[in-house]
């Protein structure tokens, strides 16, 4: 299969970690978002003009990172990213969606480009905007997870942790004060020691610059 990805994309980080954890081999196809490659031929593959997109062996195209993660969980159930009871799985999804639905959609490249372009906002205003929504989201996330486990919901990585790891990359990039989020930085540091996670981080990608 092929993974269309951009090295610094936080949504791509989630999927890369899942593929690595589950031992699923894939070819990496870079899509440079900063050069507008998502609006070229790639748009025929993914009309949303975003990454990642996963092309299966039979040619089926999957888009939207959370949908891809759900597919991988169903097709490659071990190790599970949604352990526990149905209720516990819903709690994991809820925390994951705080990252995927509350933070990322208002903090992605399309939004920032619009703010600086059509809305004529300064770099300082854009940074403040980014930091505000990450603070709001991280505060909610930290309240939803368990307080005393190695990872967000237990001893192993879950769907929620994958989103957190990617968003922590963005938080550091935009200079977010992480002092109020010691629980999250601890989880992130512990996760980065896992080889499957380390191989999925932005700096480890072939298109990193």
UniProtKB/TrEMBL annotation:
Residues 85-209 form the GST C-terminal domain. GO terms for cellular component: cytoplasm. One of its GO terms (biological process) is L-phenylalanine catabolic process. The lineage of its organism: Bacteria, Pseudomonadati, Pseudomonadota, Alphaproteobacteria, Rhodobacterales. SUPFAM superfamilies: GST C-terminal domain-like, Thioredoxin-like. One of its GO terms (molecular function) is maleylpyruvate isomerase activity. The gene is nagL_1. This is Maleylpyruvate isomerase. It comes from the Bacteria. Transmembrane segments: none annotated. Residues 1-80 form the GST N-terminal domain. Its EC number is 5.2.1.4. Belongs to the GST superfamily. Zeta family. It is an enzyme of class 5 (isomerase). Keywords: Isomerase, Pyruvate.
